[in-house]
Amino acid sequence: MTPSPAFSGGTFPIAALDTLVSQETIGDALKRRGVRAVAYFHTDHFEPWRQVPGRDGGMERGVDDVAAYLQSTASLDFARKASLFYKANVNYMVSGDRGLLRADPDDLLGFLPRTPHSLRIGRAMIGPIAASAHELQIHLHHENFTYNDTARDPETFAYLQTPRGRSFDNARLELAIRLGLETVREDAGIELTRWFFVHGHWALNASDPHECTIVREIELLQRNGCLGDFTQPAGRGHVDSRIDVPYLVDPVAQPKGYDSPLANPVEAAGAGASAAGRFFIWASATTHGSCSIDTYSPSVERRLKTPEFTALDHARNAVVIDGVLFLKTHCHSLNPLYWKADGLPTPQADPRVQAELRTLFDAADGAGLDVDFQTASEIYDRILGAAPPPKRDLIEEFDLRTGSAMEPIGLTVDFMTPDGARTPPPPLAPRPVSLPALSVVDPQRTTGEAPDRLGGAARSPAVAYVVPLNATMSADADDTADEAMIDAAAELPELMAARDVVKINLIASRVARARSAELGSVASGVTNFYGSRAERGVLLQPSEVLCAAFVGAWLPRARGVYEIGCGLGLLTSLLAARGVNAIGLERNGARLTTAKAIATVIMEELKGAGRPSRLVRGVFPKALRRKGDLATSVALVTNLLGSATPEQQEGFIAGLRAFGAVMIDVQRFYTRRSTRRQIADLLDMLAAAGFEAPRLAFDLGPDGRFMVFTNPTPRRRPGLTALLVRLGAIRDEPLLVKR
After folding, report:
1. Helix 488-496 and helix 499-519: axis angle, to 10°?
2. Is residue 530 part of a domain?
3. Do both 203 and 104 map to the same domain?
4. Degrees (nearest 5) of the Cα angle 286, 365, 331?
5. Is residue 403 part of a domain?
6. DSSP secondary structure code for residue 734 in this structure
7. Are 214 and 220 contacting, i.e. CB atoms less than 8 angstroms apart?
8. How far apart are CA 78 and CA 134, in angstroms?
9. Which of 171, 452, 508, 510 registers the highest number of CB atoms within 10 A of its CB?
10. Final residue before a domain boundary, out of 397, 429, 446
């Protein structure tokens, strides 16, 4: 296969594009690769159960949206036969006293039974799909109810951090899969005994442990009738296979096991009956940058300005099997950005998307090639039934025996015994014969007793942990002591369940959602990261809660606590509610305005507890140069990601020297630092600036390593220190104290 220039992302220079097009036309590329036909198929992350900001009505409005989608695609030859990977409305909660569908009677997390109202909406939504030319497949987001290191709602997050909560992950995921299949059977009258999958947030089989730690996910899918996965090419490129053709695997119980030589990968092309018992993985050389048609993405919007560019990329790099070029696209057609007032047209109805696809289709027509529009299941059958290609040794050809599939993300998933020894992942329990009935409610199990159960012994002897790849951060990573000043694993569940934390999360998320709906994401500052967390009600992150606990326990003498880059100000508001003189500094005006709105409502609803926070707009260190209390204050740098030159980073660090103490997430200082060498480089910069050797405050694995640095002599004007000490304005003693 001829290597391609860097086509992904839509930033290829137009002049260079013109040169390429003049060198090889789309028709030339198709001819060179022996293409006799083009087979186009679309896999949609189809999520109709959602609220659309700024409009009235509940989930019922999704019925109208699905009807409008079906109507708009019916007149488009390339869009009327899509594969809709449907996310069913399977809701969950943590409760010991509710009748829930539980994977195990001892699991506190269970799924809510469907109400008659929900059943009516579901049938009205997907019944018409079953009568159309589209096909229904399964899409699942399980990151909210199985263990990972990314916080969701506080109560569930706290439960899933415990050995007990994690021990039911496999069974809980399998139950969710079967409930999704059951909703399709009930609502559409379709028994999916042979189906395909798209993974929520792209993270199939723990390929991104920030979202999924289920290393036996493919096994669970297979034994419930799933034949294969169409997640790739993914919006997170590190989950993509190193193999660039559709292939078949055996399940491997390790992160991203489908990209392991242990999976015995073979090409799916021409496999025929030999594919029985093996799992299909769609993979290609073309990337998300060319295959996504989600026009809300800035990179897709830029790409659509040059349709010849993407068409040529597909012609050169899309999968070709037995003379057929297979072109796959994907998007989120029911995303609220397409359905709110003044929203974007749905991707298939967007003239720019149509022009891009037509460019390839027209070139194929001009070359006398057939162009077919098919579903994912038809594509699977067509690939397996193709003439077998020349035999290729995928293990040798793609060098799977060297390195690790997980290296791009720098994480893996380990299983540990209670005494801390690594162990293989536990086998799956036998598959339940039928879906469980509603759990028999134990009258002794009350909501009030639930917290006591969180610390109970796990049923499984081995539980998953997300850890840095190859080794945890240890003394050889830096010169600091390994013992954390706060034991995050032990203290976090209780801290997240604190009344003020839960209350602030609910208030902040409510205000942020309302402002986003009223003003839009950009004008409100509730964009991307903040928007998704606000929808889930988890704006206040575990790292921020631990930072607040650390300040209260170890830095009680601080005159002020400055959060630099405070975003929506959740940490600043939490500190202020606890009586700390908290100041947040933020350069984004829209974000700061929402932070102030959140802080105001927090003070009102907490009935004046604590003290008001101060939120300041500006760029550090310039905005704080006139502050006179920095030498007896603390700076918090919790999630500083962005571009900066080495000189700019040094200037930022020099500004921190004005503070008596600084706490920094050393894994997120301008760039993500996941290796020991990267963190050591940052520590060297801080030492060179004059900071004392740091101490480890707390460690959240890949979700943050927070270190505290003290200044032996904070930078002040000459002679000012002694004067301030004599006047009693400051105390000539260290800020950092032991509990």
Report:
1. 70
2. yes
3. yes
4. 35
5. no
6. -
7. yes
8. 11
9. 508
10. 397
pTM of the model: 0.66
Which of these, 674, 665, 672, lies nearest to 698 by C-alpha position? Answer: 665
Alpha carbon 302 to its chain's center = 23
The residue range of the domain holding 375 is: 22-397
- In this structure, of 47-61, 419-433, 468-482, the range with the lowest mean pLDDT score is 468-482
Judgement on whether residues 507 and 393 belong to the same structural domain of the protein: no
CATH number for 545: 3.40.50.150
Going from the C-alpha of 641 to that of each of 172, 534, 542, 670, 725, the distances in angstroms are: 35, 20, 18, 4, 37
Claim to verify: residue 94 and residue 211 sit in the same structural domain: yes
Domain count, the chain: 2
Element (H, E) at 158: helix 154-160
Q: Is residue 161 part of a domain?
A: yes
Q: Which two tokens stand for residue 170?
A: 């496999």
First to last CA, the chain: 63
pLDDT for 93 equals 92
The domain that holds 197 is classified in CATH as 3.20.20
Element (H, E) at 547: helix 542-554
pLDDT tens readout for residues 633-679: 999 998 887 778 888 999 999 999 999 999 999 988 988 786 778 88
Whether 618 maps to a domain, the answer reads yes
Is residue 79 located within the same domain as residue 228?
A: yes
Same domain, 493 and 392: no
User: Where do runs of H (alpha helix) occur along 586-714?
Assistant: 589-605, 646-656, 676-688
What 8-state DSSP symbol labels residue 342? T
Number of H helices, E strands in the chain: 25, 24
R_g of the chain, CA atoms, integer Å: 27
- CA dist 270 to 279, 280, 376, 397, 702, Å? 15, 13, 17, 19, 42
Report helix, strand and coil shares of the chain as percent, to nearest 5: 40, 15, 45
CA 397 to chain centre: 31
- Could you tell me if 703 and 666 are in contact, meaning their C-beta atoms sit under 8 angstroms apart? no
Which residue do the tokens 């039911």 mark?
Answer: 168
